[in-house]
Design goal:
Blueprint: H1 10-27, H2 34-38, H3 48-67, H4 78-81, H5 97-115, H6 120-166, H7 190-193, E1 196-199, E2 202-206, E3 221-225, E4 228-231, H8 237-245, H9 257-266, H10 290-299, H11 307-315, E5 316-317, E6 322-323, E7 370-376, E8 401-404, E9 421-423, E10 432-433, E11 437-439
Parallel strand pairs: 7-10
Antiparallel strand pairs: 1-4, 2-3, 4-11, 5-6, 7-8, 8-9
Helix pairs in contact: 1-6, 3-5, 3-6
């Protein structure tokens, strides 16, 4: 796997990563029908086929045009696949998979040829950025495919119900659900799950100065935090069920003013993608907005951790007095450490990976689900845009909350404790969950 890259020269490592990343990208399109390929399943996201073309466009723009000085190979695609070319709703008018695959392959062949002569010492950060760019778009692809699956399942259930009504059949409400509850399955120990870890007061290093760091991760700096407590595990479906059962969605005292306004508008009563099967009770809850995570935290007398609190608990080795790249150390992610890279294809119980614990003893800080924090997405001191202003800077608008940790679909190349994700607080994303924190007093 990717850990073998340490044996290679920089160019060899990049060549390997480019090909490994691309193989995984193409797997997402195996046996994908044309309707799913070009449909827009959510107003905030482009069709999956557009992402494939955008990956090729971005690689061509930065490596072949800006770096190698070549002319644009496919000028007819510039407006369609540029991030600022067309509104998302107009991106459904796509070439077919065969044509976009040809575009992808042609660009990649030129890129690999250029890699042979590229000044890698000067360009290494750009090449690594582009591997991460493709990785990030593949997680978006995974999310859109989950949306498609969810919508198609809903349509099938609705169609079956209508058919049964027309035929005079009575449909039992339990039978119409995607999953059922077997009372013998639920054996999860909530007392153990409720454990918190005390993080002593002191400084730690936040951020990342490595060649892999994206612009919003750097520059790293020292941060002092008072003593606080943080959950050992992400909040589980079983724990969240208690919030639902106790009327958490009906109690305005648990919600911020803006959160309550959001709830009255959306009229939701459970997380998106909710599992009614209690065999999922030891899995992390997901599909919750920031407002829902905040309300649950108040319900249990806690709060959401700040980004700094989350990152210290996940990455700081107090004994060695240094930052770890990953919670467990410096070795790149493998199936022993965490649930990522679509290896499982869904969430796993929160205590599944003891080898992946942080130095402070937190489980599941990388992989499984992204975790909401209390912090707004903002630049670190000394921030400089790279490779273009629009990558991060336009989102420093005090409208996006930071998420940390990655999900079961996050690629290895973007999985690290310093990595920062950001969403609007009203977003209910299938990959997003949370854990709670509390003050020491």
């Amino acid at each position: 796997m990717i850990s073998k890259l340490s044996k290679y020269s920089t160019k060899e490592a990049i060549y390997y990563a480019l090909n490994e990343c691309r193989c995984q990208t193409l797997k997402l399109f195996e046996e994908l029908d044309d309707t799913t390929f070009r449909s827009q399943y959510h107003a905030d996201f482009s069709p999956v086929g557009w992402h494939l073309g955008h990956i090729a466009y971005t690689e061509s723009l930065w490596l072949l045009e800006h770096s190698a000085g070549l002319r644009c190979l496919f000028p007819q695609y510039r407006k369609l696949f540029a991030a600022d070319g067309l509104p998302k709703s107009e991106r459904v008018k796509l070439p077919n998979l065969e044509e976009i695959s040809y575009y992808l392959q042609t660009v990649r062949a030129k890129v690999l040829k250029y890699l042979e002569v590229a000044d890698i010492e000067r360009q290494e950060r750009l090449w690594r950025f582009l591997i991460q760019h493709e990785s990030q778009h593949c997680e978006i692809l995974s999310y859109v495919l989950e949306l498609a699956k969810s919508q198609q399942s809903t349509l099938r259930l609705t169609s079956t119900a209508l058919s049964n009504q027309r035929s005079g059949q009575v449909v039992n409400s339990q039978q119409s659900k995607l999953v059922t509850f077997d009372s013998g399955v639920w054996t999860f120990d909530f007392a153990k799950q409720a454990e918190m870890v005390m993080i002593p007061a002191g400084e730690f290093e936040q951020g990342n100065n490595s060649i892999d760091a994206l612009d919003n991760e750097s520059l790293s700096y020292r941060v002092y935090l008072d003593t606080y407590w943080i959950d050992r595990y992400p909040v589980t479906c079983g724990q969240y069920r208690q919030f639902m059962t106790a009327g958490g969605y009906k109690n305005p005292q648990l919600w911020s003013e803006v959160g309550w306004q959001w709830l009255q508008t959306e009229q939701v009563t459970q997380p998106l993608y909710w599992h009614s099967d209690r065999s999922y009770d030891d899995h992390p809850v997901c599909g919750v907005s920031w407002y829902e995570a905040e309300a649950y935290s108040r319900f249990v007398g806690k709060r959401l951790p700040t980004e700094a609190e989350w990152e210290k608990a996940a990455s700081w080795d107090a004994q060695a007095k240094r930052r770890r790249i990953y919670p467990w150390g410096e070795e790149m992610p493998t199936p022993e450490y965490c649930n990522c890279d679509r290896l499982i294809g869904q969430t796993t119980p929160v205590a599944t990976y003891p080898a992946g614990k942080s130095a402070y003893g937190l489980f599941d800080t990388l992989g499984n689900v992204w975790e909401w924090t209390a912090s707004w997405f903002a630049p670190y001191q000394g921030f400089q845009s790279y490779p273009y202003v629009g990558y991060s800077q336009v989102y420093f608008d005090n409208q996006h909350r930071v998420l940390k940790g990655g999900s079961w679909a996050t690629r290895l190349w973007v999985l690290r404790s310093s990595f920062r994700n950001w969403y609007y607080p009203n977003v209910r994303q299938v990959f997003a969950g949370f854990r709670c924190a509390a003050n020491s007093d």
